[in-house]
Amino acid sequence: MDWLHRHRGTIPYLLLLPGLAWLALFFLVPTYYLANTSLQTGSLDVGYAFTWAWENYSDAISTYHEQFARSLEYAAIATVLALLVSYPLAYFIAFRGGRWKSLLLLLIIAPFFVTYLIRTLAWQTILSDSGFVVNTLQTIGLLGEGERLLATSTAVVAGITYNFLPFMALPLYVSLEQIDPRLIEAAEDLYASKARAFLRVTLPLSLPGVFAGTLLTFIPAAGDFINAELLGTPRQSMIGNVIQSKFLVLTDYGQAAALSFVLMAAILVLIAIYTRVLGTERMGV
Amino acid sequence: MAFVRRHVLTAYALLAFTYLLLPIAVVIAFSFNDPLGRFNYTWEGFTLRHWQDPFGPPGLKQAIMASVQIAVLASIVATILGTLIALALVRYGFRGRGATNLLIFLPMTTPEIVMGASLLALFLNLGVATGFWTIFIAHVMFCISFVVVTVKARLVGFDRHLEEAAMDLGANPYATFGRVTLPLIAPGIAAGGLLAFALSIDDFVITLFNAGPTITFPLYVWGAARVGVPPQVNVIGTMIFLLAAGLMIVNVLTQIRRSKGAT
């Protein structure tokens, strides 16, 4: 105890040490090894060696630029769709939920209580060729005879949207719930129409939620490969599918690591641009 | 007009909730299906057979055991490490706070596939064989940040006068921590631990990269997806869903009752 008194300044470091050491060893150090691996060449038979193999990057990009573009495209579409579905839903819970708010929120995160893979497999069942969704769409003529939903890009985007929707809805709800309803009343007392009050008061105040939600949805969506694997075909394959198979099936570690790095860099650049654009937009409001 | 608007929004919310819950209904319904072949896609008839024999398919029981063991171990370790970090961040001023926050924040925003690939690169380069313990290491790693955030939220609203009172009444720092601080922040720690458990037992991507020959429940489902998923997977999925949903509903209902009692 005396020791503790004399060394009060070291207590926070002692508390931090084990946890931060774990994160340093198994989060930061692995990033170095990923970078190192991305410049290695070799194969499982002859072994792998560090050779400054920058061609891993150029080869990876020239061979797989299509999958890269598709990943970013699918993730962007899914993020916008998730925003369109969740905004009214979060608005409903925040302003109309009353004392059932927490139970309604529970319904939003309910999909998380079913294992990721199992809920994606459920979409396989729902969208399957003999399922009721395809049957209904064919009856009302939105889908031609013999056309299908499963194994199309529609199915993959729908799956991604569904799986990451709660990441969008929860931050939206938090920012909408914090808005003082009296601000909206004040706007209406000052003769703003409902629509105008929404556009000039509610929407700007909810932008932090939109911002957090888009990032939380887009980042995991861009790296996803499960939806493309279970709901699509190789024609819908995303960069995650390539990284996964190169690492775990083809043992082409160099290119797999290079692809992981490019994915990470692409996401960081997009986030930086997005933060810029939304940041100035908010100042203009 | 207001009447119409009100109901348009309600109808929209109902539709959105249907969309969110439809796959869950499908998972539950197909746990009672009696499929003709290996593929459990179309409704063929009602049966209780799979519920009577949930661990029937070979390897399923071992996979669930592995998942539970890893989740228990990883959530305990992550909860301890994360709680210590949260205590340091809320209770003490120290140099390097910004760097600490960044190191906590980064794992939550890195795509899982990149974290899984990086860890595998580490293990490959160091010649560590992947398996049960590498999964454990990975799960502790990505759970710590979520525990820190959860416990911190509870610590911020903590009344430090209670600790001072205990000290004034002659309690030493250890007794104060054990008898006052810990019981008060216990709900936050429990919430962090449960979140870590849930994240660990559901993790697929990072696990796939670092599993070696070990098969967890999500990896079992992944393997089965290519050759036809046995309906027992739906049974287990339903059980996990009911357990998690039950816990959450009890939690929410006690909160609602408590807030009603307070007013």
The biggest beta sheet of chain B reads:
none
Structural class of chain A: mainly alpha
Question: What's the CATH topology name of the domain at 58-229 in chain B?
Answer: MetI-like fold
Largest sheet of chain A: 2 strands, antiparallel
Distance between the termini of chain B: 34 Å
- The CATH class name of the domain at 58-229 in chain B reads Mainly Alpha
Number of strands of chain B: 0
Structural class of chain B: mainly alpha
What does this structure look like?
Chain A has 2 domains: 27 residues, no CATH class; 222 residues, MetI-like (MetI-like fold), CATH 1.10.3720.10. By secondary structure, chain A is mainly α. The termini of chain A are far apart. Chain A has 12 helices and 2 strands. Chain B has a domain of 172 residues: MetI-like (MetI-like fold, Orthogonal Bundle), CATH 1.10.3720. Chain B is mainly alpha-helical and 263 residues long. Chain B is globular and about 75 Å long. Helices cover 78% and strands 0% of the residues of chain B. Chain B is built from 11 helices and no strands. Chains A and B meet through α2, α3, α4, α5 and α9 of A and α1, α3, α4, α5 and α6 of B.
Briefly say what this structure is.
Chain A has 285 residues and is mostly helical. Chain A is 75% helix and 3% strand. Chain A has a two-stranded antiparallel sheet with strand order 1-2.
Topology at a glance:
The complex is a heterodimer of chains A (285) and B (263).
Chain A (H helix, E strand, L loop, with lengths): L1 H5 L4 H27 L2 E4 L3 E4 L4 H42 L4 H9 L6 H12 L4 H8 L13 H25 L3 H9 L4 H30 L2 H6 L7 H10 L4 H32 L1
Antiparallel strand pairs in A: 1-2
Chain B lengths: L1 H29 L18 H4 L7 H32 L5 H13 L2 H15 L5 H25 L4 H8 L4 H30 L2 H6 L6 H11 L3 H32 L1
